[in-house]
Design a protein that fits this description.
The protein is of the alpha/beta class and about 270 residues long. The chain is about 25% helix and about 25% strand.
Length: about 270
């Protein structure tokens, strides 16, 4: 069994300090096997915001796997946006834009989807897909495979907004061929999960897609409180506990359990009918 704490969209520059302190306490009380941070560490990619984010991450459990988001690229500095968009991210957070975590149970691969040509959208390039293919090829086949991006590959249920990461169809084909089991992302500031095939009918492999809301910022959507995902992984079982801020601390808001039967992920309530 492995546990992943999945946090996203911290947005330093718009962080509530009380919530950030409570999140730190929650994570340190029961450290996960891996802490995943799926982008938007800052609000405006300013040096002081990256420095604050870096100091905060140093206080959280390790190991960590971090990818940047669109807010981690300067929005209003055209020169730096196109010439060296992740300069401060690399200086303060990590030089590694192709992060990977591997042990005897998990293979977790991070993809940088942030790009200079748009303030909001992201893209998965052929180069990054090739990197996933090579990492999977070099790893033991039995590992549970996870891909982390900032931008989602699946929209929220009933959500009109469907600005998914560019080239998501190409990416899903590669993930299917590579036997990816789980996708983690953020960006929409909404927590939800499901099988990618509910939206992408051309995909044949059952792949779980799990999305985190904003962990610490005041930038809420649909009045959903700050929160993060605590994910427990076994080979054919995944439990996602959404932990939410209640004004005093982070508490278990709801738990979704999935079981893989004949290669397909099913929520446990569907299996019990």
């Amino acid at each position: 069994m492995r546990t992943i704490a999945h946090i996203s969209d911290l947005h330093f520059g718009r962080v509530d300090p009380a919530i950030a302190d409570a999140l730190k306490s929650d994570l340190l009380d029961d450290p996960p096997s891996l802490l995943v941070i799926s982008g938007d560490l800052t609000q405006r990619a300013r040096p002081w915001q990256f420095e604050a984010a870096a100091e905060y991450l140093r206080q959280l459990p390790h190991p960590q796997l971090v990818v940047p988001g669109n807010h981690d690229i300067p929005a209003y500095n055209p020169f730096r946006r196109f010439i060296n968009p992740l300069k401060h991210y690399r200086r303060c957070i990590t030089q590694d834009l192709r992060p990977v975590f591997q042990d005897d149970r998990l293979l977790v691969m991070g993809i940088n989807t942030a790009r200079s040509f748009t303030r909001m959208g992201g893209i998965i390039t052929d180069e990054k897909l090739l990197d996933v293919q090579l990492r999977v090829r070099e790893a033991p086949a039995e590992l549970f495979k996870v891909v982390v991006t900032h931008h989602p590959l699946m929209p929220a249920p009933g959500e009109v907004r469907t600005d998914l990461v560019k080239r998501h169809a190409e990416a899903l084909r590669v993930f299917e061929q590579c036997g990816v089991d789980l996708l983690l992302s953020g960006h929409f500031h909404l927590a939800y999960s499901g099988d990618v095939r509910t939206h992408h009918t051309a995909v044949k492999r059952s792949i779980l897609s799990v999305h985190a809301g904003t962990a610490t910022s005041t930038r809420l959507r649909q009045a959903e409180p700050q929160g993060y995902n605590w994910i427990t992984i076994q080979k054919d079982h995944v439990e996602i506990q959404a932990r939410a801020w209640n004004g005093r601390q982070f508490v278990a808001a709801h738990t979704t359990r999935y079981t893989r039967v004949d290669g397909e992920w099913w929520p446990d309530e569907a299996l019990s009918r």
